[in-house]
Write a structure and sequence with these properties.
28 strands, alpha+beta, 3-stranded antiparallel sheet, flat, about 1900 residues, 6-stranded antiparallel sheet
Length: about 1900
């Protein structure tokens, strides 16, 4: 205290000192620090301490001006000076901490003492972390990537995840994870061998840090302003936080120094004395005083005091303590937000009263006043947390507070502080505008604290954690309550949460609820909760807020205007706030010892329910047309009952209430089941789609076990304890179908429209079947349940592993038995399903790995009931049945349409035996009898489904019949009064054979029954006549009890009355005042009269007749046991297990016979006497008619099926031929033309107008084509080694060895030394950005196409392609296209005329060729055809970018176009070659040929090329075929660059130039002539290249060897001679002279044998021969021969006519034999070589380089990817972008060249193009293939569109993990990658992938 005062005094009188200090002391901060440290380490250190305090006061208040001046300074830019001062202060602190040494060294020294047993790394949202379920004890366990990869988790169940709220690494914390999973760093419990921290090391810290932290707190106090009435000042808060960034970062760095520093910080933060001294010694300092006042104001609103409720929505603040406002405040909050005035007066009063009532309950529930009070702070830590909350959890502060957690002492202190502030957190959260971010930050902290059981237990005991949490939750929900409108709208006292409120809509409550769930997962905490009665009462109170929320009222007239989506909020709230805590509690009630807990919960649950029934004024009938899906109290009760019986061996009856309560309990869940049927019957259609959404969510897999399952279980419990007749009649009344259950053929239904009757009846019966056959809570074990769930899901559809995990409802609490992916899941899965590996269909749709049910599962375990219960969409039930049908057909078990099979059930748990009484009650039997009769008589509104369910119920009854019934006793009526009803007893087995003769019914006048006279016997034969099941009570009393089963409803009501003990007359008035108005129905309804029907049937006889009816034959049923007595002893039920209705009837009759001898006898009797073929009198004709009708319908149906099947198969085969890119098998003639020789002109079909005809000048036909720029060719490499995707910094890829790069280099080299126009004829372009043309093979008239485009343009539907860019889909096969290629008029057959072999000599042909080329190609007259040719040429040019077209030095020169045009031809030929696998060995007209458009393309190109006539001077043809005088070539050489020597020309380019310069169509002989001439040049080039490649010795040897043979006759065809001559000539050109020694050494390593030389020459020439053969194949339609790879050269040569036909094949083939020199060989070679001479004399190196042309290109491939996806992910997801050096949000990598790009990255945008789009243009001329690193998916960019292609990485179960949501390890799927590569090479992305969208350059 004194020290502080002294410091203030010192600091007071010398204002100029801080400046001095700043400058003077700056020099020797270190010295000062050292001096102070020395002073402090003396034993008596008071003087030192005072000096230090004074210094700190000075240094740290150098920062003061900033905050004191408040916002003005900051606004006026006065922050600058302050910023400098702050830095100065931080420097001082660092210096002082280090005590004079260097700060870095100090840090290192402290780290040395770090007992790093825990990792504790804190991360924020979006960080990639790991979770291993095998190692985790707490479900929230997580590891940072480093610890995960350094630990051993092989074979564990782990996954990678993106943190949503942030988290911390738990490595080393044995409370949260098993030690076996620790990483190498944290395995060593290192605390033992760490030396003790020397006292003086951290001494300074202990003095400096308290001041520093206090300074920080002062700041926070000053920066805070209590927000104004409505606008919280987020901006101001953020401003303060930005200024404090350096200080908080400094603290954060301190925490990272390790354990030693953390413990100092802990001392400082938790020491109460320090806090007291510093915060109360503020007397004189005005500035400090002001900040303290602000602090007190901020504290004021921190308690849970009542007036606060007013402030929830920022209303004006009352003075604290006005308690009168409490109730009004509540009333304000209770009305919907902002509408307090809109409600009328009484309503206000109502809610006020209710406020009081609720309040009382609440306040008494909370034990501890401290929860309500204003906070009091006793340490720095407490106030720091307070401000952290006030400032809405700034990330930096959160990280600092969490970084401290490895310190155990701190952890406890912090947890207690957190709990102390819990209510305050809730209030801040509710007010916050950024509640999402804030929620994440809260959970980030709380999950670290509450996951630790030991800690949670301690806090629960010492700080009343549970009380605080429950109270805070209750308070939070209080603010958004509204009056419940369920049942009794006027007088209801119940309040529910309003799902429209932000609190629920935005899930604001989830951080608090998730903490609650988290602590309930600890046994010790949950036990305290379950033992504490007060807490349970409060909790049930909380749950009742959700009971009956989101009430739906059925719209009867208008369609609802606004469909509210509040139901999402309601379902989420029930699941999270009610169900999950319930599952948490249930997980601790597993053993017998915990019975007490269950009793507690059940007791308070029932009390809460009783309160609820009272509050809503419930008597005995639910209000009509209302339904709520939310009954959490019912569900708590049901689940605890289930647990009690299943695990705790409690006696069920001991926890059940009385009958009256059971009746009430059953009403609302039953109401939901009936409403489900109504919703599916479209009775709620006016409420909009959202009501369907609710019905679906209610049964959906994440909700079903907290919603529908408990509801059905509760109904099962009620049914087992209530009177069965009462229950059954309730069901039919709830489903509104009582009126339908009459024997009469016509009836009136007062509550249901006729069109809904059938589906509601189906609904009621289905519900009964589910109720009676579901065993989920009635005796199945967990594994059986899992198996049943899995079978049901697999039967609906094949499923992937992950969707199965998702669809199997598991207890939402992670600590409950079945963890997804746990052992039992996998073992059950492998038992019931087979894995189908992912397959590929040619259409390109990629399958995932699927699980499909095993055959025996279909055979024995398929359970339709379970399927119906679990289907969200009705179509899934159908799907399951279809699959079942298919299985039966396939396995030959049953050919027809089967019925759902009957499945034997698990035996009932003894406690629930009563449930089976439902099957043995007369009411049900009457219903079954009536329905069977109605179905037999073909009454309306019945369906096969109804019959199916009726039979199912009968069968259930037979399976579960009471054993006692002996035949003798049953035949006597027994004590039962036979007279009172239809049936003598209640046992189904005996009732089945009971004959009913007459039934009295009430029918409308118009019904056919009325006309008949009633037989005289009616009144006397009292035995079976009965009034039908109808409501009216008119007839009740007549004939003294003739028929005493009157209306179901009356019966039911009677039972209810008896129980409630009221006089029946009074009850009748109370309950149903509406009964009477039924009779005053409008006159239109016909009058009801009584009629008596003669029935004379029993259930057995009806069944037998049904059998006849179903089979369509008389006497079709013959008791099988008459033939085979064995049957009765050992029944063969399996024989009957699959089949249709007939089988079902047979099965039932057999079971009935087995159960009783009487039944057996009666069945036999009935069968004996059945039918004199006329059954009841009037049915015959009608029945016959229906049978005929049925038969006719059946036949029609079969015909239709057949037609459809035929149609489908036709369509399929068409689609295959049209769409399939790589299956040459389907050779259905789809060629463009038919090749019958007799036709003179090609005929085309137009797919738009359907007419056929030739293409003509004025009405040209065109081919549908897709033009696209392609750089695939440029990706060919000469290296066999595949390129790998780089996954380390070293492995970058450089594109030097690609085809495109090599060609570029060559062209620029030529352009450097030779004349430009000549260079542009010497090469081809288009390796990058070449135009590829493909067609689907369909043709259309060009004018038809134009009108088609018009119609597309007007049709503004989003098509996924851009009509303005000329895109469309082929009208026939829907293939994507963007242009039309005109077909040249004339025949394709004329080729045959041109193929006659002529005997002209080669010299004549050469002259003809030259003449033809010389003719100027005038453009044909302006016809439609020529216009189209021009426009398509324009399209071709515009397909690629300008940079890929213009290579000349003079832009826009015609040479450019010329080069571009013949290069288009080259590109298409080369690509076709690649599609054929790079060679022509397979031969044949492949599919590519079938749909090739090269012929048409050639016409278009040739037409345009002829416009540019090459000067005869420069036509290379001359140089090839004539000897030129020497002087001529030397003429103008000096003043201009020379032409490119012919030896440097690319021969294939020359070929295309020559062909395209000829007038079309070309004659075959001219073609061959051109090829022969060019081959001589090619061969010479090969020899020259060979000579350059070999060593000096080899050269001289060959020179001599060849010279010797030169004189032989065949010299011109001998490669030795030619080679020696070439060497000779070239050495004159001094080509070989300057050879470095090293090159010789390298080259001479290859020993050249004659074989290897021959091979080299052939390989050099092969590419030319392949392209030429392809060209010949397209131009003249000749087939390509197939051959072995080694004979490819000779086969192609002979096919091209280079090989003389008489050539003998005995001796080894030599390529030289193909030569056919047009001139003497040696002369022409001399001429060619001399052209080089002048060049090589000056540039020998380049001269050589140009001679060696690399011709062996390998096929293009995408980059090779690593096996495991993690290697890619770990390298790339943290890699920084080369442009902006930040880590991109969506990194991607190009799979063609390995470039790393940012998807959608704005940093890398250039002229509005994002980086991926730009890269796709540069790398693939508009096609890009990118792997998105964070999503594992591949995205394709094609021009202006993009699509998601899918993933090539699959997990162990063969499925994709898009966006890495599941985070399981992924492995490369080679097949998929092949498919991707195939689509890239064949340019079929556009055709195969269907979902394209525009990317607007934003990718």
């Amino acid at each position: 205290m004194a020290a502080a005062a002294a410091a203030a005094a010192v600091g007071g009188p010398q204002p100029p000192q801080p400046e001095l200090a700043a400058s003077g002391l700056a020099l020797d901060k270190a010295a000062t620090a050292a001096h102070l440290k020395a002073a402090l380490s003396r034993p008596d250190n008071r003087a030192g301490a005072e000096e230090l305090q004074a210094l700190l006061e000075r240094v740290l208040s150098a920062e003061r001006p900033l905050a004191a001046a408040g916002e003005e300074a900051a606004a006026a830019g006065g922050g600058g000076g302050a910023g400098a001062a702050e830095e100065e202060a931080l420097e001082w602190c660092k210096c002082l901490l280090a005590g004079g040494g260097g700060y870095e060294e100090f840090c290192a020294a402290v780290r040395a003492y770090d007992p790093a047993a825990l990792c504790g790394l804190v991360w924020t949202a979006n960080f990639v972390a790991y979770r291993c379920r095998t190692c985790g004890i707490s479900p929230c366990m997580s590891l940072c990537a480093e610890c995960f990869h350094q630990g051993d988790h092989t074979g564990h169940d782990f996954n990678m995840f993106r943190s949503q709220a942030g988290g911390a690494c738990d490595c080393g914390d044995s409370n949260v994870m098993r030690e076996s999973g620790f990483c190498k760093r944290h395995q060593i419990k290192s605390s033992s061998n760490i030396p003790c921290v020397p006292k003086d090391l951290l001494m300074m810290s202990e003095f400096v840090l308290p001041r520093f932290i206090f300074c920080l707190i002062q700041y926070l106090r000053e920066g805070y302003n209590e927000p104004a009435a409505d606008v919280p000042s987020e901006k101001d808060l953020n401003k303060v936080l930005q200024l404090l960034e350096p200080q908080i970062s400094f603290l954060e760095d301190l925490t990272k120094m390790g354990g030693a520093m953390r413990s100092v910080l802990t001392q400082v933060l938790t020491n109460q004395q320090n806090y007291k001294d510093l915060t109360s010694g503020l007397g004189e300092n005005a500035c400090a005083k002001k900040s303290h006042e602000k602090y007190l104001i901020a504290l004021k609103s921190s308690g849970l005091t009542y007036p606060e409720d007013k402030l929830v929505y920022g209303m004006q603040e009352p003075s604290a303590g006005t308690s009168t406002l409490a109730v009004q405040g509540f009333a304000g909050a209770a009305g919907p937000l902002g509408q307090v005035d809109s409600s009328d007066e009484e309503d206000q009063d109502g809610s006020q009263g209710l406020g009081k009532r609720k309040r009382v309950k609440l306040s008494s529930g909370t034990k501890d006043q401290s929860i309500m009070d204003v906070l009091k702070h006793k340490s720095f830590l407490e106030e720091l947390l307070f401000w952290t909350i006030k400032y809405e959890f700034p990330q930096k502060m959160v990280t600092f507070l969490l970084n401290m957690l490895p310190d155990q002492e701190y952890k406890v202190a912090f947890t207690k502080t957190f709990v102390q502030h819990y209510a305050f957190i809730m209030k801040t959260l509710k007010k916050s505008h950024e509640s999402d971010t804030m929620s994440n930050r809260i959970v980030h902290i709380s999950v670290q604290l509450f996951s630790n059981e030991e800690l949670a237990r301690q806090v629960t005991e010492e700080c009343q954690l549970l009380d605080i949490m429950v109270t805070v939750l209750l308070y939070m929900m209080e603010s958004c309550l509204i009056k419940s409108e369920l049942q009794d709208e006027e007088n209801s006292l119940h309040v529910v949460v309003n799902c429209g409120e932000a609190l629920l809509k935005n899930n604001t409550y989830w951080p608090l609820v998730s903490d609650f769930i988290n602590i309930l997962s600890h046994q010790s905490v949950a036990k305290r909760f379950l033992e504490d009665h007060g807490l349970l009462v409060t909790w049930m109170n909380f749950v009742s807020f959700f009971q009956g929320m989101n009430l739906n009222k059925r719209e009867l007239n208008e369609h609802v205007e606004f469909e509210s989506q509040t139901y999402y909020a309601a379902f989420a709230a029930e699941l999270e706030a009610c169900a999950q805590p319930m599952w948490g509690l249930l997980s601790h009630c597993k053993v017998r010892e915990t019975q007490e807990y269950t009793r507690n919960v059940v007791r308070y649950c029932l009390e809460a329910l009783q309160d609820w029934f009272d509050a809503i004024n419930f008597v005995d009938e639910p209000a009509p047309n209302q339904v709520t899906f939310h009954l959490p109290l019912h569900r708590y009760y049901a689940m605890f009952l289930s647990k009690a019986v299943k695990c705790q061996e409690l006696d069920l009856d001991s926890v059940l209430p009385d009958q009256e309560m059971l009746m009430k309990l059953m009403i609302h869940p039953l109401q939901i089941q009936a409403s489900l049927a109504e919703i599916h019957s479209n009775m709620w259609v006016r409420n909009g789609l959202q009501i369907k959404g609710q019905a679906m969510t209610y049964v959906q897999s994440h909700f079903c076990n907290s919603m529908i399952d408990p509801d059905i279980y509760l109904l099962q419990v009620c049914a087992s304890r209530l009177d069965p007749d009462y229950f059954i009649s309730s069901v039919f009344e709830r489903f509104k179908v009582v009126d339908l259950l009459t024997m009469a053929s016509q009836h009136q239904n007062t509550v249901l429209d006729a069109e809904h009757e059938r589906s509601m009846l189906e609904g009621a019966l289905t519900f009964l079947v589910i109720l009676l056959s579901l065993r989920l809570h009635l005796g199945m074990s967990d594994d059986e349940i899992l198996r049943a769930e899995m079978v049901a899901q697999l039967c609906m559809n094949d499923r992937t592993h992950s969707s199965l995990l998702d669809l199997i409802p598991e207890n939402p609490n992670p600590k409950s038995g079945i963890i997804p992916g746990s052992y039992s899941f996998e073992s059950v899965l492998s038992a019931v399903a087979d894995f189908k590996a992912p397959v590929f269909e040619p259409g390109g749709s990629m399958q995932q790995g699927m699980y499909t049910p095993k055959a025996e599962v279909w055979d024995q375990e398929f359970d339709p009931v379970m399927v119906i219960l679990r289907t969200v969409y009705r179509r899934d039930v159908q799907s399951a049945m279809d699959r079942y049908t298919a299985f039966l057909k396939q396995s030959g078990k049953f050919p027809g349409n089967p019925w759902p099979p009957y499945k034997k059930r698990t035996s009932l748990h003894p406690s629930y035996k009563g449930l089976m009484r439902l099957l043995h009650c007369k009411t049900l039997h009457i219903v079954l009898f009536t329905l069977l009769y109605k179905i037999l008589m073909d009454h309306q509104n019945l369906s096969e489904h109804v019959l199916c369910m009726v039979l199912y119920l009968i069968e259930l009854g037979l399976e579960n019949s009471a054993e006692e019934e002996s035949d003798e006793e049953a035949s006597v009526g027994g004590p039962e009064r036979c007279h009172d009803s239809w049936f003598p007893g209640s046992n189904l087995v005996s009732n089945m054979r009971h004959f009913i003769n007459y039934v009295r019914v009430r029918v409308p006048d118009t019904a056919p029954e009325v006309k008949r006279d009633s037989p005289a016997s009616t009144s006397s034969d009292n035995m079976g006549s009965s009034q039908s099941l109808r409501r009216p009570k008119v007839l009740q009393r007549e004939n003294s009890g003739t028929a005493q089963v009157f209306s179901l409803v009356a019966e039911r009501r009677k039972k209810f009355q008896e129980i409630i003990n009221r006089s029946s007359s009074e009850a009748n008035q109370v309950v149903r005042p509406k009964t009477s108005n039924k009779w005053s129905a409008p006159g239109s309804a016909p009058q009801l009269t009584t009629a008596i029907l003669e029935i004379k049937e029993s259930i057995l006889s009806l069944l037998i007749k049904l059998h006849h009816k179903l089979s369509g034959k008389q006497n079709s049923y013959y008791p099988p046991w008459l033939d085979d007595i064995e049957l009765l002893i050992q029944p063969e039920i399996p024989k009957y297990s699959h089949g249709d209705g007939i089988t079902a009837v047979e099965r039932i009759l057999l079971k009935a016979a087995l159960q009783s001898r009487m039944n057996k006898r009666i069945i036999e009797e009935i069968c004996r006497k059945v039918t004199p073929p006329v059954p009841p009198k009037k049915i015959t004709a009608a029945e016959k008619k229906t049978l005929d009708k049925e038969e006719r319908r059946q036949k029609a149906r079969e015909r239709q099926q057949k037609l459809l099947a035929e149609f489908a198969s036709r369509q399929k085969s068409f689609m295959e031929t049209a769409m399939d890119v790589d299956s040459p098998e389907n050779d259905i003639p789809m060629e463009i033309t038919a090749a019958e020789p007799q036709v003179s002109e090609a005929v085309y079909d137009c797919v738009i107008c359907g007419q056929s005809g030739p293409s003509s000048e004025d009405r040209p036909t065109g081919l549908v084509v897709l033009l696209q720029a392609s750089s695939v060719l440029g990706q060919c490499r000469d290296n066999v080694e595949p390129k790998k995707l780089p996954i380390t910094e070293e492995e970058q890829i450089y594109p030097w060895d690609t085809c495109a790069a090599v060609h570029d280099v060559r062209l620029s080299l030529l352009q450097r030394y030779f004349k430009d126009s000549s260079c542009l004829l010497a090469v081809s372009i288009g390796w990058e950005g070449g135009v590829y043309v493909q067609t689907c093979g369909h043709t259309l008239h060009i004018d038809c196409h134009k009108s088609y485009m018009e119609s597309l343009r007007n049709d503004q539907v989003l098509q996924g392609f851009s009509v303005d860019k000329g895109e469309f889909t082929c009208p026939l096969c829907r293939q994507f296209a963007n242009s039309v290629l005109p077909c040249y008029p004339g025949s394709h057959v004329e080729n045959n005329l041109w193929q006659r072999t002529s005997n002209k000599s080669i010299q004549d042909l050469i002259k003809e060729v030259e003449e033809l080329q010389g003719r100027p190609g005038a453009f044909p007259s302006e016809t439609n055809l020529s216009k189209e040719m021009e426009s398509v040429m324009k399209d071709i040019k515009n397909t690629t970018q300008k940079k890929y077209r213009d290579y000349s030095k003079t832009p826009g020169s015609p040479d450019n176009d010329f080069l571009f045009m013949y290069s288009v031809a080259r590109t298409n030929l080369e690509l076709e070659l690649i599609h054929r696998g790079g060679n022509l060995c397979s031969g044949g007209a492949s599919t590519a040929g079938k749909r090739s458009c090269l012929n048409q393309l050639f016409h278009v190109l040739a037409l345009h090329m002829r416009l540019y006539s090459i000067d005869a001077e420069f036509n290379p043809w001359r140089k090839l075929t004539q000897l030129v005088e020497e002087m001529n070539s030397q003429l103008g050489n000096e003043e201009q660059q020379p032409e490119v020597p012919i030896l440097y020309h690319d021969v294939t380019s020359l070929l295309l130039i020559q062909i395209l310069m000829m007038p079309q169509p070309l004659r075959k002989e001219h073609f061959t002539c051109i090829v022969k001439v060019l081959f001589t040049l090619l061969y010479t080039q090969a020899l020259a290249a060979l000579s350059v490649k070999c060593s000096e010795e080899d050269r001289s040897a060959w020179k001599h060897a060849g010279a010797v043979k030169k004189s032989t006759c065949d010299a011109e065809k001998s490669y030795e001679v030619l080679l020696s001559f070439v060497i000779n000539e070239l050495s004159k050109a001094k080509l070989y002279r300057e050879e470095g020694t090293q090159e010789c050494a390298m080259a001479s390593a290859i020993a050249w044998s004659p074989e290897s030389m021959e091979k080299y020459l052939q390989d050099f020439c092969l590419p030319f021969l392949r392209i030429t053969s392809l060209l010949q194949h397209h131009l003249f339609g000749e087939d390509l021969p197939s051959c072995q790879e080694e004979e490819e050269f000779s086969v192609l040569a002979s096919c091209l006519g280079l090989l003389p036909t008489f050539y003998q094949t005995e001796h080894p083939f030599v390529s030289a034999s193909c030569l056919d020199w047009p001139l003497p060989a040696f002369d022409i070679i001399t001429q060619w070589c001399s052209e080089i001479k002048s060049f090589t004399e000056r540039h020998a190196e380049q001269g050589k380089a140009l001679l060696i042309q690399e011709s062996k290109w390998k096929l293009p491939h995408l980059l090779q990817l690593p096996e495991n996806y993690n290697t890619i992910f770990q390298y790339y997801h943290r890699k920084t972008c080369s442009v902006c050096t930040k880590v991109p949000k969506d990194p991607a990598v190009c799979l063609v060249c390995g470039t790393f790009v940012c998807l959608k990255g704005l940093c890398c945008k250039q002229q509005s193009y994002c980086e991926c789009v730009l890269h796709s243009q540069n790398c693939g001329a508009g096609t890009g293939i990118f792997l998105l690193i964070n999503a594992s998916v591949i995205i394709i960019i094609r021009g202006h569109r993009f699509c998601l292609w899918g993933s090539v990485y699959l997990d162990a179960h063969g499925e994709e993990d898009r966006d890495l949501r599941r985070g399981k390890p992924l492995y490369i799927c080679k097949e998929r990658y092949k498919v991707l590569e195939q689509q890239w090479i064949s340019h079929t992305f556009d055709h195969i992938n269907k979902r394209w969208g525009p990317h607007y350059n934003g990718l």
